[in-house]
Amino acid sequence: MFKKTIYTIAILSCFSTFAQNKDFTQFVNPFIGTENMGHTFPGATAPFGMVQLSPQTNVEAMYKSDGSYNSKTYEYCAGYQYADSTIIGFSHTNFSGTGHSDLGDFLVMPTLGKLVLDPLETENGEKGFLSSYFHKNEMASPGYYKVKLDDYNISAELTASDRVGFHQYTFPKSEEAHIILDMVYNVYGYDDKNVWTFVRVENDSTITGYRQTNGWARTRTVYFAMEFSKPFKSYGHKKYDKAQYNSFYRKFNEEENFPEMAGKKIRAYFNFDTEENEKIAIKFALSSVSTEGAMKNLKAEIPHWDFEKTKAETKQKWNDELSKIEVKSITPEDQITFYTALYHTMLSPIIYEDVDGKYRGLDQNIHTSEGFINYTIFSLWDTYRALHPLFNITQPKRNNDMIKSMLAHHDQSVHKMLPIWSHYANENWTMIGYHATSVIADAIAKNVGDFNKKHALEASINTANVDYFDGIGDYKKMHFVPEDKSGSSVSKTLEYAYDDWCIAQIAKSVGNTEAEKEYLERSEYFKNVYDPEIGFMRPKLSDGKFRKEFDPLDTHGQGFIEGNAWNYGLYVPQNLDEMIQMMGGKERFSMHLDSLFTMELDDKYIEKNEDITRDGIMGNYVHGNEPGHHIPYLYNWTNKPYKTQERVRKIMAEMYDSEQDGLCGNDDAGQMSAWYVFSALGFYPVLPGSAEYALGSPIVEKAILHLDNGNSVTIIAKNQSPKNIYVKSVSVDGKKLNRNYITHDEITKSKEVVFEMTRTKPNWF
């Protein structure tokens, strides 16, 4: 990848004091992943915070004027692109690293001079309210963002608590200072995305309201309460939709100083006189329940106007979370990459309830969480692989609450299903599988959480038997998903088979032998889409025959989603020994992996996939997408585990770094970063739902994991260097392992794990 230099000098200057001040936030570069396809954002948020307050750098409509999809919108999944030179404002909700998008709620922008209410360009072709900016005047750290808006000479600073965004704008002297509240702007916006917006002026410094949108989440309502630190002198709004019926509101001049604003598309403004260097602050609270709930959140979390106090408190929250893993790496750049990855793993899922525990449920009713904190944003096709397993080490209590949130989702679901890919009280049905079962099974295997296991089993079985969902009925009847009835059939069959293995593990944990047997049998259905004549998983039709037209290199229309037979066809984590035997045994399988990593893949095979680019590809191995994340570790199941160590080190070195384009693909709600955190420590959860982690090649020299159980375990890589990538031996509390995996208990209950590193190729197990 082509690299640029940004911000690392300022961050690296802190390394000399690392051991003394223990300020781990100084090793985080929030700009990593903001260029190309990482789709992260550099704004202000607390760990797992509901408010994710971040700059937005462009407005791209999701559809072109002719109704076709505008591929340019894909660059703006997180609302911010580092390559842009203008900012249109600061929104309070954002996704981090997803390959599809939504949100971008409540855009706020300070301006000066003639009032302009269009972001990019007015109807007359004049400049909109956007402002140019320079990266030299932009900075970000966990919980804080600052930039100078050059067109207005305004300094913008942002911080946030869990549910409240805190803005601070430093103005020049002016009698024409404005703060715009843009209720039109959406990430992945289109003409009809807003269902309704409402703004209410409570007094000369307090605003409340809500917005309902129909997007990725089709019935999403977000309420807000907004307070200014200073009364505004006047206000108004412009409506961008034409109402056919306005009842007797036509009596009023609604556009100026009228305290109710309602419509599909509204931009409000608030006018001020300012002195030189005068600061105007805004507290902006969110709620899924009501404006009253938003106001409760505001008063509970930030009852004052001390911006620096909130900034310091949020910084401390981040430091507390980041300090759970103390790392010393080979290079300062690796240290930044590691801590930024760890930071990214805590941007979602997010807290989704008010301070009193109330939240909007999937049924659109208001519920109160009992015995847990409710979370949302479950990108489960991505995050079950490594993010949730990481939480079982670093965030066990939160992961327990996340599982309880998933069970609440099931209970509120008219389909009686666990979440597939859900956010903001909506199921958006993205991707395949029913991977909440994996998250549950993994927590049980690692003895994490106090959720009701029998309820979890019931919810998992219910989910796995919704016949009208994505080919499940045919899967149950035919023991595979037929391609002529449901696309991406091979991927679905493989993922369902794994999820069914997870259900069997849940059943085993509660002593339900009948369910355990049934779902173990279903977990073997992967065999039914393997074609031994060609040596690949292959789409099968409802007549039981393999489809004739098939190209194992193609990623489009060949029975796979976001992958091909060469890579996604290796997804049988629950029975790797059987899969390898089917594919010719250990030696032949090792050669298959070699070919996968070294072959040349023609552009025609990936050109139809906007989320697969050359940056994330090594041969035909696609690290920039999740289905292959376990593949580098599969050499551990052959006679050449040292090749896992080679591949893992190469991926870490080439596909992650400390600069703004330092992610090779979508971070996908933290999964890409979780892979790095695990791999940097020297192990990876190839099979979530078991208590084992496959060994790799640690890049850290030393790591201390401070765990919630009170234990601290030290991981040491002796003789670590860029050339010493091979593992000579591994010991736990002085006892050498004679196997190529380490257990969860050995990670969480021991005192010391030691890797002996060498530059030769040993086979010690």
Structure commentary:
The chain is α+β, with helices and mostly antiparallel strands and 765 residues long. The chain has 2 domains: 31-318, Distorted Sandwich (Beta-galactosidase, Chain A, domain 5), CATH 2.70.98.10; 323-758, GH92 mannosidase fold. A 9-stranded antiparallel β-sheet has the order 7-8-9-10-18-14-13-12-16. Strands 19-33-34-38-35-36 form a 6-stranded mixed β-sheet. A hairpin with a 7-residue loop joins strand 31 and strand 32. 57% of the residues are buried. Mean pLDDT is 95; it is low at 1-20.
Topology:
Elements: H1 8-12, H2 18-21, E1 44-45, E2 52-56, E3 86-87, E4 89-91, E5 107-112, E6 131-132, E7 138-141, E8 144-149, E9 154-160, E10 164-171, E11 174-182, E12 194-201, E13 206-213, E14 220-228, E15 234-239, E16 260-263, E17 266-274, E18 278-287, H3 291-301, H4 307-322, E19 325-329, H5 332-344, E20 350-351, E21 358-360, E22 366-368, E23 375-376, E24 378-379, H6 380-383, H7 387-394, H8 396-412, E25 421-423, E26 426-427, H9 436-445, H10 453-463, H11 472-478, H12 489-509, H13 513-522, E27 530-531, E28 536-537, H14 576-582, H15 586-598, E29 617-618, E30 621-622, H16 642-655, H17 671-681, E31 683-684, E32 692-695, E33 700-706, E34 712-718, E35 726-732, E36 735-736, E37 741-743, H18 744-749, E38 752-758
Parallel strand pairs: 34-38
Antiparallel strand pairs: 1-2, 2-4, 3-6, 5-11, 7-8, 8-9, 9-10, 10-18, 11-17, 12-13, 12-16, 13-14, 14-18, 15-17, 19-33, 20-23, 21-22, 24-25, 25-26, 27-28, 29-30, 31-32, 32-37, 33-34, 35-36, 35-38
